[in-house]
Amino acid sequence: MNSPKINRDVNIELLRVVAMLFIVALHYLGKGGALSSAKYLSANYIFSWTIEAFCAVAVNCYVIISGYYLINSQFKLDKFILLWLQVWLYSTGIYGALIIAGLARLNIFDAAQSLFPVLTSHYWFITSYMGLYLLSPFLNIAIKSITKKQMEILLFIIIGMFSVWKSLNPIFETFDPTKGYGVIWFVCLYIIAAYLRLYWHSNVNKYWYLLVYVLISVLVFLSKITIRYYLPDVSFENLYYEYNSISILTSSIGLFLFFRELKIKNGNFCRLIVAISPLMLGVYLIHEQVVLRSILWINILHVDTYVESIMFIPISVLIIIAVFSGCTLIEAIRFKLFALFEKRKCQGGFTVNY
To answer: Which string of b and e fits 75-94 if b means at least 16 CB within 10 Å?
Structure first.
């Protein structure tokens, strides 16, 4: 997750960067209170829920990228441990810094989440991802032992069970009540990604994939305002925003396939993407730290106070870019410090592989 090889697909690395920017936007809108506070059908409401619709693919795209590469890779315990270590360092380090700065108080619940971030689902994505990574070698054996036809039948079953059915039947969450936030959905995405890697070779123009992503994202927003208008008392007005809905699944695949077919020829831009894509996990770990996230969006940036302001849209764009850029810079500094530490260890007779 941290060190893309130089020969890795730069277009996919660009998708990593875009998807992380999307995730920052999702957290800004959701945890900053914009989605819940904006007046129905106001300009700020339309802006917020439209951006939400276009960005909701981010998590699915990350899992699809992982499955796309892991299907032809081997499980490596050192990568698993180093990922856990990076998560733990940020979780505990940020919590300790907030206490020292007087921005947070020491309490048992926050301390437990910060000290055991994976076991407590402090970062729910990391918890689910690490579970998926542990399962990946067994999933690979199963996937590669069946034929293309059998895999297509499997895809028909899992997409029908975990995506189509819940999209048609919003009242009863029969097969996966997590709305796509758990290992079950990650496994489904892994199998889909494996199929795309092993069997999906199409001559479709890449812009058709982009069109699918754009059109479905617009339809997702329209579903929101339509359900709320005609059924204001129901609890499923955000149904088609959920990660395991057929709408978000389809738009996620469309966006991924667009980037897979994208050709990037500018050498300087390629080098920039290769340089910053390894930093994206750090962006997530910093701004989504369990104690920092409420302080960041509410106490520091006061997102909820200007939701009805005419300046909400330009301020939103600036804050999202600023948080993304700031976290990227912090992770870049950490990356350099760890690289320096590694170099000194090697010079001292030890070898540390990051």
So the answer is: eeeebeebbeebbbebbbeb
pLDDT tens digits along 184-242: 999 999 999 999 999 998 889 999 999 999 999 999 999 999 999 999 888 899 999 99
Write the CB contacts of 16 (distance below 8 Å, at least 6 apart in sequence).
Answer: 62, 65, 277, 280
DSSP code at position 163: I
pTM over 0.85: yes
Q: What is the C-alpha separation between 127 and 351, in angstroms, rounded?
A: 29
Q: Are 188 and 158 in contact (CB under 8 A)?
A: yes
Residue appearing with tokens 């592989």? 353
Residues 6+ apart with CB under 8 A from 348: none
Residue ranges per structural domain of the chain: 10-347
Phi-psi region of 200 (alpha: psi -120 to 50; beta: other; left: phi over 0): beta
Residue 181: which region, alpha, beta or left (left: phi > 0; alpha: psi -120 to 50)? alpha
By C-alpha distance, which of 281, 271, 279 is closest to 335? 279
